[in-house]
Structures are given as structure tokens and as C-alpha cells.
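#struct-help
A.M.: can someone run this one for me? Single chain, 553 residues.
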Amino acid sequence: MSNNIWAKSSVQKYWIFFKEKPHTTASIHSDAWLDTDVFNGYKLLIEYFGKIETESAWLNAVTAYLTEENVKKIQTFTFVQSIRLVAVFSQEEYKKYYTKRKNIFGNDPKKYIEEQEKDVKKLTPKDYGISHTQNALTKITELHKLGYTGKGIRICVMDGGFPYVNENPYFERLRKKKRILKTYDFVEKEENVYNETNEHGSEVLSTIGGYIEGMFIGGAFDAEFLLARTEDARSETRAEEDNWVAGAEWAFKNGARIITSSLGYTRFDDKTGYEYKDLNGKVSPASRAATLAVRRGMIVLVSAGNEGDNSWHYISTPADADSVISVGAVDADNWRTSFSSYGPTADKRIKPDVMSMGGNVAVAKGKKGEGYVDGTSFACPLTTAAVACLLQSKPNATWKEIYTALTSTADQYFSPDSSHGYGVINAYRAYYYLNNINEPPKDTLNILKKPIYIKPVYVKKIKGFEVMLCFYVPKDVSIDKIRISMEDSGGNIASESILEPEDKIRLGRNMLVMNKPTLMRLSKIANQKQNNEVILRLWSDNKELGNYNFKEK
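D.P.: on it. C-alpha cells below:
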């Protein structure tokens, strides 16, 4: 039963949160409670005052179009916990704003994928084409060599639409192998997600699932995908948060193991929005839904935001959610990008959690092409790809196990902060950590006939933590490759990598000069561990060449 007040008056869209679910005896903390729909009696009563748009069983809430007068009436109901504005459009404006568009795409994309693919364990840097740098930076390529490509892992990509995914050749392998299982457009309320003109979602998807050998390879190209359009790129309204909540529940119902969302909310077009004090993971509906998604067994990754160099400065929501893995951005040289949003949350938790490449990331573009983009939006799916590969190696791993494996092996684990979190992920080391396997030595250097004593020449600080550290190498010793590890006095390794001439280092005749980002982190560790040693060790062929103990002077 319903009247027509909403159709005759200027209305707005509201969240209506209910106190309980009287039709179930399940505990509010149980999964059974979450699985129980909103009480039908409540919905019937709300429908008398306005048109219901969305129902959220997890939040025990609905969204509805209501007049201000009817909002005041509903607020008096004892079963209503709270009411919150969602959108600022009248129903007539809403219908006009979301006018359906014709499908402008063809249905006969050119076939680029060959029947026979190279053994994944034998992929070379050349096979990755323009995507090699972004995959190699976080060592996803090393997981591919172990045979982990995200196979069997279902990922829901929540974004702003996926144009050209139905025809760009970089997605042909996904189409051919039927890896896109289901799609839904929560803006237009239809299954077709390919009508949108903004390519953000397509670009995000390509970093995970794109594939053409010799040109481009995504980080988890054997994963399965659910595509959810929850964002309208033409505006920024609370309606998109409404869609985010609906998308998360849709992902769960359709078997997603991972949600990746390169979306975030701070201020809206109507000049309302959130304040920094609201970023505690408990205020925004999207953050609450993200937390519940993790509780249901999914792993949720969210981009930290691109607000680092503007007045907002901090992460956005739902990146503030406690159980969400929020991802910031570095460039190909491991430097934090200026736009990557800062933490901490309002309740002083470390955010972002980890970092990945978000500067000059290669993506699929248009009907046939590719290009380069910037944003934490792309650091997030690159990390998602790593998580999918890790889950393939240990399918029953919990979000906490994945989170711990990522953060404990990231390059700033011993000194997390509000700009890098725990640092750039190392998917290879995370694999060994997650599966409790001893990591084998990665270098194959020739055994040296005599020991090398590498002595520190100087440590120089420039502009705070920017550091250049030089080591003396005897003239009669030739070094082409060195393994560097950072550890505390207890032998716990914070970071480990192979340094080669083609890396951002210089191997001179008598000096080894290492790159600034690595040494910046060393200096930060030293400064934050004033009473403890932080040791830099240099190795060749698994033999220690020398070490330097950082101590606060």
C-alpha cells in the first residue's frame, strides 16, 4: 500500500536504519542475523510514506525517497534507529538524470588470443610488455613463476562502469574463457555495465585480468570476475554510497572472495559530506558495509584516495574501515606519489595499510588501445591481484592471515607511518610467510674466493629522511649483484631485495651507492628505534659481505 506524495512533491533520498529484526531470534552478532532480510512490516510502513529504492540486510536499513515532512513522521517510530540523507535530487530530477543511453559498442571484437599460451612459470619480462614494471615492483611476477595466477578466486570489481571490456582485445582472454561471470549496474538498475563512457572501471580491471602475451599481462589473469557499476562518474552524491552497500551484498551473494574498490567518498556535490573526525570506520554506510563484508569472509581492498596534495589531505571512506586493506601509491622508483592520501584514521589507526604502484601504471584504454594513468585507484587492484594469487596458494586463508602476510613482509614493517603504512608489498615474501615456508635464497652469484669487507663511508641526511649511503669496495673485487637485507637486532627481516646495475643504484669501481627510497626507510627505522640496532647486511651467494649498524647518534 502506498500513496503518491513522493511523486508530487520535491523529495530527497534517505537511509532509514532500523533498531532490530523482530522476525528472527538470531543474535545481532551472528551471520544468521545478517542473512535475515529487513522486517517486511517495516518496509510496508515506509512504503506508505515514500518509494523504497534499496534494502540492506547487513545494515538493517532501506533507502527511500521522502519529503521532509514524512521524514519527521518516520523519525517518531520507535523501531527506527536513525535517518540520514542520501541524495539531493527530486524523484523527477533523479529519473531525468539517469536517462538510459544506447549501447554504442559493437559485438564482434577482433580476436587476439592464441589457443596455445606460454607456460606461466616461463613468462619473461618481455612477455609482460608495458605491464612488467608494475607487476615486478611488488614481485607478483615471482608468484606467477610459482604457478599462482589467481585461478579459482572470484573478485568483485566495484567501480564506475566498464566500457570497452566487451571489445578491447586486452579483455578477449577473459571473454573467451568466460571469466566474467556476472555483471550489474546499480546506477541504471540493469545488467549491462558496458554502456558507461568513463573508462575508470575498465582500466582498473585490466591491471588484474588483462592479457596479451608480449604486450600486457594483468596480475591475476586467471581469476574470475563480478563487475558491479556502483559509481556515476558524472556526479558525486551520497547515492553512490548507497550503491556501494548494495554492491557489497551482491558480491557476497554471488560468491566473491575479494572485493576491490577504487572508490572513495569525502565531500559531495551538494557541499555536504564527511569531516576528518568521521573517518573512524563506523560512520559512513560504505565503511560499515565493508567491515561486515570482511566479517562474512571476504577480503576487501580499497584505494586510499588521491587527496595527499590538496586541502583534504587524508584518506577517504571506506578506506577508513578497520578490516579493509587500504592501498596508497608509489611510483616505479618506489617513491610515494604526491597525490597519495595520508592517514591515520580519526581514531589513530595506521592508514594506508600498504603501498603499491600507482604512478604511471599501464592499463587498457578505448576499443583497442592502452595507455598510462596515475592514482591509488590502480595501486589497489595491483595489490588485489597479489591477494588473489596468495589466496590461490592458500584458499582457506582468512583476511587476517592475508593482512598479516602483506604487512609483515612490506618494506616498512618496522616503521609504519601515516604516509606509507607498512610500506610497499612484496608478494613473493608474503607467499612464504602465509604458507609458513622458508624462503630460498634468490641470488645465484659466484662464490667469492675471499671475504669482502664493505665499510660505510658516510650517512648523509638531506631534507629529513632522504639518505645516500656509500660503501667502500676493495679494488680487487668485482661485484655485479648484491642482496641487501634490513633487519633488527633480533634478526627479524624488514626488507630484502636484489640490487643490480639496471636497478636505481650505481655500482662504481670503489663505491656502491644505493637508491634513496630504500635508504630513506633505513634512516626512518633508525630514528624510530633509538635504543635498538637496525642492521643493514650485504650478501653475495648467501655469504655475508659486510654490515652496518644504524644507531641514533
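A.M.: thanks! The CA atoms of residues 142 and 336 lie 23 Å apart.
D.P.: also worth noting: The two ends are 76 Å apart (CA to CA).
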